[in-house]
Structure formats: C-alpha cells, structure tokens
Amino acid sequence: xxxxxxxxxxxxxxxxxxxxxxxxxxxxxxxxxxxxxxxxxxxxxxxxxxxxxxxxxxxxxxxxxxxxxxxxxxxxxxxxxxxxxxxxxxxxxxxxxxxxxxxxxxxxxxxxxxxxxxxxxxxxxxxxxxxxxxxxxxxxxxxxxxxxxxxxxxxxxxxxxxxxxxxxxxxxxxxxxxxxxxxxxxxxxxxxxxxxxxxxxxxxxxxxxxxxxxxxxxxxxxxxxxxxxxxxxxxxxxxxxxxxxxxxxxxxxxxxxxxxxxxxxxxxxxxxxxxxxxxxxxxxxxxxxxxxxxxxxxxxxxxxxxxxxxxxxxxxxxxxxxxxxxxxxxxxxxxxxxxxxxxxxxxxxxxxxxxxxxxxxxxxxxxxxxxxxxxxxxxxxxxxxxxxxxxxxxxxxxxxxxxxxxxxxxxxxxxxxxxxxxxxxxxxxxxxxxxxxxxxxxxxxxxxxxxxxxxxxxxxxxxxxxxxxxxxxxxxxxxxxxxxxxxxxxxxxxxxxxxxxxxxxxxxxxxxxxxxx
Length: 517
What we know:
Structural class: alpha/beta
Strand content: 25-35%
C-alpha cells in the first residue's frame, strides 16, 4: 500500500482554512495597499483601490440587472482587468461565475449552458455575436454588459455565503472525454489558496506574470502585481514572443507561471537573442508534462533561478513538483519523474479499473512501490464534486473513510525514494502481445529522432501504429532502433492535434479519428 504523509490523519485538515466569501482576501489586500498596482494589461494598469471601486460598481450593476445571491452567470471574457473585476463582483454578491476559457469552442459554450443553467450571460461583442447563433445562450434571460453601470447606492460589505456554495465553475479540458464542470466552492478556493500559498512565495508587491487565469485570483488575494501576458491564448501558436519579452523587461517581472508551451517559446527567444532577465527569480510551469530535453532548455535559458515543473490537474493543484535542474538530468526509462508529493496531498496508487470503485474495493486494489497503476489523491484542496454530474462523481471520485479520493486518470508509480513517476493516461496504455506500451513515453523517445517534431503510438485492430509529425529528413534508422523487433505501421501527418488549453499535450481523441487502421 502506498500512503504518503502517513503522519497526518486522513480525515484531519492538512491546513486550517477559515471559510468566508473568497473575495475577502482581495478586500484585505486593498485595505493594506490601496495604491499598489494590482493588474497591468498592455499599456493600462489599475491599483487595488481602483479595482475595488470597479468591483463595487459592477456588483451594484449586477444587482440592479436582477442578478442576486446564488445565481449563475456565464462569463466569456478574455484574461483582462475587466475579467477579474467581473468575477470579483460576482463573488461579492454571492453569485457564481461560470467561467469559460477564451479558446472555448461553440460546443463548449453549449455544454456550459446546458450544465450550468445560467441566469446571466456576460461577454465581449464576439461572444455575444456567437451567442446570437447559439440556442442555449439565447435562452439565458439576462444579458449583461462588460462595462455596465447603475445608479444604485453603493455598499461595501460582501455577501455572507455558505462554505459549500459554488463560487466558480470551470470546465476540464475534455481532451480525453466530455468536459466536466468543476464545482469550486468558496471552501475549495480558500483551501486551494492556503495550499498554494504554502507552495509558492507570495510576498505582497511581487511582480508576477501568470498566464493561467486562476493564478491572477491567487495574486489578488495576496497583494501581488499581475502582468497579463500580451498574447492571444486562443491561438497559442501565433503568439508574438517578442511582446512578452518586452513586458518582462519593462515591468521587471520576478516570476512567471505558464504552460510548458509558453515557457519553451520564451526560452528559445532568450537563447536565440542572447537576452538575460535579471529581475526574474522564479519560473513555474504546469498543465502538461515536461521531459528532460525541455527542462535542460529552460535551465539554459533562465540560468540559476528557482524553476519547478508542477504536476496537478483542474481537480487537484498541486499534486507534486520537481526542480527543473533535477528533471534536466533525469533518465527516462519506465516513467517521467514528477517529483516529491506535496505535503498537502495524500496519494495512493491503485490497480486501474474502467468502472466505478467503491470503498470496499478501494481497500483491495492498492498497489506497492514500483507498481504501475492509477494515481488517486485526497486533501482539502482536492475537488470534491462536479456540478450537476452525479455520473462523473461516481466515475472519478472514491468515498472512503469520510474522505473523497480523486481518480486522476493518470498512470504512474512511486519509486523507492518516494517520488512520483508518470507513465501516461490509463485509458491510453496499449496492451498488445503480452506487453504494455505507453504512448506518453514513446512520444518522448520519438521526439529524439531527427526529423520528428512530435510523435506517438496507437493501436488499431491489433496493429501497432507509429504516428509522426515530421520536419526535414526523417532518420529512419533511429526510428527502426526504437521499435526493434516490433511490427508496426508508420503514419505521417502534417500536424498532430494538440490540446486547446496549453497547446502542449496530444489530443488523442482527435488523433484517433484522423488515423485509420
């Protein structure tokens, strides 16, 4: 049985969480440092006091428009000062922000509307134009303006909320299935903030560039300055990295939190143009796996600063982390090292089952060190439920001894040192001719082959298929060495589909449809 942090009782909170309306953290920082800059967006900046004033005005506008405590509002606004003013205003009045990433498709919009049953909708003109042609959005009774105002008398006290009231509903990427609505209650967001504050240095006044939306909320609750990257996250491959470098230099950014795709693009630019960033002290990346080659690239680009790759998910952040310098020198054999399990996280590895797991079975299928299985986690910062989706709760959660364990869907094992290693997604592992093949690990091996920009393996009708995205001349001898004594079919594609959120992971759902047996 693998149980990390055994000195902590399973049912005892790992950190003390004082549950109130999550907006209180921002309000506290505004009282302490009203004239400090809160967010910088392109050439515009706003102080904590100015943002607080905007939050109250927006809250009054929402109330006058008929939005009240407990209502859900679909928010389809890009990362901006306006987005955080809107979200904080919804928290303030006890309403729930149903958040969609700016890369979301019309299908995700439809799904969000069907699940959340929103009373209000707020978006820019592009979102509203899309809404006109989307039946599910047209049914939302109250359409709100991003810059709406009201003559209603202002008030300053946030609404008291029940600790399990939803504050924020977000959606999982859904690259391996239907997106699920993550129910981020005020308790959960408070707990997640406490855990992340213990993981990250969060001194007030620190200048941070968070490219992941949730971390701006974390910064606002701790008094940091958030420099929003000047980038169209809807089209990550078209980002002009020179603009981001200019922001990093101009504002003296001290920390970056971003996906591996963005960190890699920044790294290549720094190396190619021989640029140093003397103000930068920390880099954190998550959302997709990082292999040693990229880790070595990051170390070369950023030098001797604090850099970590964080492993986690929508439902549990963080699970573990590893120093980039350690990862850069790691050997990839049976799994990708993702480091030491976070002190706030209880972790076990269980035999994978493509079915629901009850408490009694859970006791029987726990594995030992070095054994590959599904990674499951619990802790106060681990999401307990999905919104209006009992089937997803049954499939992805295990109720055991009054604790909720989340099934990550990731295959991995704990090594002899107690560190976690990833093997890939459980449902993507291939069992063929008495062997287990990991498309995740083969993706790394294939990327070492000259002429391969991305690659993986699939199984179709008992046949092993090697799928490659190529550039230049393919080193066929190196490819043959990887699959020595293996019978495989080679398929090349002009572009292997990536996940839309981070543009880093392979979208296996789309890839399966593209490749024929």
